[in-house]
Specification:
- The chain has a domain of 125 residues: Nuclear Transport Factor 2, Chain: A.
- Helix content is 28%, strand content 34%.
- The protein contains four helices and nine strands.
- Strands 3, 4, 5, 6, 7, 8 and 9 form a seven-stranded mixed sheet that branches. A two-stranded antiparallel sheet has the order 1-2.
- The radius of gyration is 30 Å and the shape is globular.
- The N and C termini lie far apart (89 Å).
Length: 186
C-alpha cells in the first residue's frame, strides 16, 4: 500500500483503490432507477382508504361532532372551500362563510344538538371521488329547559378535494311525518 502524508508530519496507509464497476448495458441503469423509484413511491403511498360511501359517513360524523361541540371553525374546515352550497327549505346559501354566518344564528340558542338516525342513513357512491349521504336526524334547538325538536332530512354531497374529503353541498328539509314512524331518538 502506498504511504500518504498526514498533516502534522505522520504517515498513514492509503486505502487500496477499487477498479471501476463494469458499465451496465445501455439503458439498464435507467430501467433499474425507474423500477426503484416506482417501488419507493408504492411503499411511501398512504394505504388504501375507505371507499367514497364510507368516507361520506366518516366526514358527516365529524361534521355532526363539530356541530354538537359548537365548534364552527371545525365545521367550516369540513366544508368545501370552492363553491359550497347549502339549500335549506328552498333557501340557497352559497359559500362556506355565508353558511357559517347562518349557522352562527342557530348556535346562539342555549341548546343546539344534532342526533342523526344512523340506522336509517344511506350512503351512495356517485363516483370514485364523491358520494351522497342521506340521513334523517333529530335537531334540538332553543332554551335548555324546553328545546324545540325538529325532524330533518339531510342529503350531503361529499367530495374528495386537494384538501381531503369535504362536504360540497348540504340539502336540508323538514321530514315528512309519514316517512318517520315513531320517534327514533330519545
Amino acid at each position: 500500500m502506498p504511504a500518504r502524508h498526514e498533516p502534522g508530519g505522520g504517515t498513514a496507509l492509503a486505502a487500496p483503490r477499487r477498479p471501476p464497476a463494469p458499465a451496465a448495458p445501455h439503458g439498464a441503469g435507467d430501467a433499474m432507477r425507474r423500477s426503484l423509484a416506482c417501488l419507493i413511491l408504492l411503499l411511501a403511498a398512504p394505504p388504501a382508504l375507505a371507499g367514497p360511501a364510507e368516507e361520506a359517513r366518516r366526514l358527516y360524523a365529524a361534521f355532526v361532532a363539530a356541530q354538537n361541540a359548537h365548534d364552527l371553525g371545525a365545521v367550516r374546515a369540513l366544508l368545501a372551500a370552492d363553491r359550497f352550497l347549502w339549500v335549506s327549505n328552498g333557501l340557497s346559501v352559497w359559500g362556506r362563510d355565508p353558511a357559517i354566518a347562518r349557522m352562527m344564528s342557530y348556535h346562539a340558542a342555549e341548546t343546539w344538538r344534532i342526533d342523526p338516525v344512523e340506522a336509517r342513513a344511506v350512503a351512495v357512491e356517485a363516483s370514485p371521488g364523491a358520494a351522497y349521504l342521506h340521513v334523517p336526524l333529530l335537531l334540538r334547538v332553543g332554551p335548555r329547559a324546553a328545546p324545540a325538536r325538529y325532524r330533518i332530512l339531510v342529503s350531503a354531497l361529499c367530495a374528495e378535494t386537494p384538501e381531503g374529503w369535504r362536504i360540497a353541498a348540504l340539502f336540508t328539509t323538514d321530514a315528512n311525518p309519514e316517512g318517520w314512524p315513531g320517534d327514533p331518538v330519545e
